[in-house]
Each structure stands twice: as structure tokens, then as C-alpha cells.
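Section: protein folds

Sequence with per-residue C-alpha cells
===
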Amino acid sequence: VTGFDLWGAVVATGVVCTFYCTLGGLKAVVWTDVFQVGIMIAGFSSVIIRAVVVQEGIGRIVNDSYYGGRLNFWDFDPNPLQRHTFWTILIGGTFTWTSIYGINQSQVQRYIACKSRFHAKMSLYINLLGLWAILACAALCGLALYSIYKDCDPWMAKQVSALDQLMPYLVLDILHDFPGMPGLFVASAYSGTLSTVSSSINALAAVTVEDLIRPYFRSLSEKKLSWISMGMSLFYGGVCIGMAALASLLGALLQAALSIFGMVGGPLLGLFALGILCSFANGIGAFVGLVTGFVISLWVGIGSQIYPPLPERTKPLPLSTAGCNISSENLMTTENPLTTVFNTPTAERPALADNWYSLSYLYFSTLGTLITVVVGIIISLLTGGLKQNTDRKFLLTKEDFLSNFSRSKSETKVEVLDSKRFTVAAEGTDNPAFSHIEMDVASDKNKVNGLHI
């Protein structure tokens, strides 16, 4: 649609991400994310403002969307096989987003980078405002897209070859008379991609070095570990570029992303929930529960890709080409090429395809979490979990809820220290990563027998 070569764009995005992740680390990722959010909001805003002008007011957009069935908030069907209902979004969305913000390494790494727990919580509340703004802009852009093309859908009219091309098509259509504005939207789309990919690359490199290399190669210096971390960023950057090929086989990208987050994040969320909520959980129960959760989640997730749900489950909304000035022969086929890769004839569909594999993708995370917790509890009880001694401070307490908007005592007390009198602090802030002993680890000071203390 935009004229850019697909693989040229993919490789360019991967190279740019890998470059600044390798050289700048987490600091580069965070600061580039700040600027990228601004570009994303600007790109969305330009499309929304121009669409409102074209449609002569936002009221017409909302009215078209309402009477076109695009504003259905009150579908309370409890059937978990239905794609999108009030309950799938409320329950499934809660588990999915909890796994993303609660146990995802790229998020947890940023929490740890904050100076204190209070700062980490404040960053989450600020992030919540930004997330609301992004989601609201995306929803408004979707409503504007429908309102403008309600009588001549570009997908049905074969003006685009993939559903993900609809938004760029709209931008080029309504902003072609404004030089630079289509480019702003392209930059906005690239910003979202760069933000996601850079966070993943940096998180993978950090986990590899800290959990897989440092514990087993203690003789490596900080300088060597830094070089290894850069090498890991390069490696994972190449892997991300390669994985882009698989993304083209997963259908709509948003649904594919949420499905993967659910299949992987659900069992991990269940693992953490088991450890926090159940004092009798042990290592055996946690491991068996995690493996079981992964197996079940991947089973239903992969099955749903091989046997996509039937239209009565997805409930596709009607599209029209009545206002298009094109020949009728171009409208004979409306099959989605993104999903035909995995489609099989209806006669060959197994019994599980219309029941188990038709589970809403928003429930993948819920399923993985519940399976992990239930199996973990059962196995822990059977393997003597009630006989173990547990430190209560590692369990969830009421203080964890009551302290959401308050600082701890160590955070409210501010004391000015004389740097000349105190050369080594007994402890840092709430986050030990900000102790100057660790921050200055590359220097030759504070060594005993050649080792850092």
C-alpha cells in the first residue's frame, strides 16, 4: 500500500533496534520509547482529526459505527467459545494484561530499574494513562475507518491484499494532499514496532547474561559480561528478524500477539500466583503445574491456528461494496488469504475443532493460569507441601494492598549525608541495584583479593 518493500522494512527495523539496544542497553530502550510514544500519539491524532473533517464531525462517525453494529458493548453471552463478548474481554483481558504487566521480563526489568517500589508503582500509573490514550486513539481510528468505507469496503473490493493494510490505505486516501502527514503515520507505526522489539531484545539479552552465563562463569569480568550482553543483543536481534517470517502465517497481528501472550504468559502468571497465594506450594508442584499449563495452552492455541473457528463463533460483521465503482467480477471471492494457510475442509475437522479449539483467544491466558494453579496445588499437597517451612514475608499480605499510594518509612525519611564522612554506605535505596557499590563495580576500588565486594 505504501510502496515500501516488506522485507526491506522488516530488516531495517530489526537492524535499527539491534543497533541501539546493543550500544545503549536499557537506558536507550527507555528513552527511545518515550519519544516513540509521542510520535505514535501524533500519528493517531493526525488521522483522527482529518477523518473528523472529512466526515464533517465526530457525531457522524459514532452514528455510522453504532448503526453498523461496531459499538456493541453489551453482548453478555457467557459462552467461552464466542470470540468477543463482554465476559471474554473482561475476564480474558484481565488475565492477559496481568501477565503482561505482572510477570513479563521486559516489564519487570523496568520496575527493577526504578529507584524504589514507590517509583515503580508511579511509573505504572503513568503508563496506565498512556495506555488508555493509545487504545482510545486506536479505537477512534477504527471507527473512522468504518465510517469512511462503510459503503465501499477496500478489503471486499480487493483494493488491499491483507486486513492489516486497511489503516495505511485510509491514511494515504485522506492525507495524500498533506505532504509529510502519511510519513508521520508510517513513523508512528514504526515507533510501535521499535518499542516492542527493542524491549524484547534487551530483556532477552539481560536474562541470558544474568541467569545463564553469570552464575556458571564467575571468573568473567564485568567488561567481558558487558561485551557478551552486546553479543546477545545482536543474536536476538537476528532471531527477531527471522521470526517476522512466521508472523505472516498467524493471521491478524493483534490477535496473534494476544494469543502468544496468553499461551506463554498464562502459565507463568499461574506459577507466580501459586507461589504468592499458596504457602504449601513446593518446587515439584510448581514445575509440574507450569509444564501442564504450557502443554494445555499450546495445545489449544496451536489447534486454533490449524482449525480456525467457524463464522458462527467469530461472528464476522457485514461489509458492503454497494458504493464502489468497480466491476462485479472483482467481488466474486472474499476469502481471507491470511487464514487459508491453515484452513481445512469442514468434513475433515475433528470433533475438538468446533469445541476445544474454538475457545476465544482471549481465554488462553486464563486457561493457562488456572491449569497451572490447580495442578500445582494438587501436586504440592501430594508431595508434602504442608510439611515445609515458609517465610511469610514472601506471601501476599494486606500491606501489599494498603501501601499502593503510600511511601514506606524508608522512602519518606530523607537524610542528607556527608560524602566525606561516609565512604561506603551500609545499604542503598529500596532497590539494591542503586547501591553505589554495584553501580561502580567496574572500578578497581572495593576489591578484596581481586574480587569486588
Summary: Residues 6-54 form the longest helix (49 residues). DSSP finds 15 helices and two strands in the chain. The two ends are 58 Å apart (CA to CA).
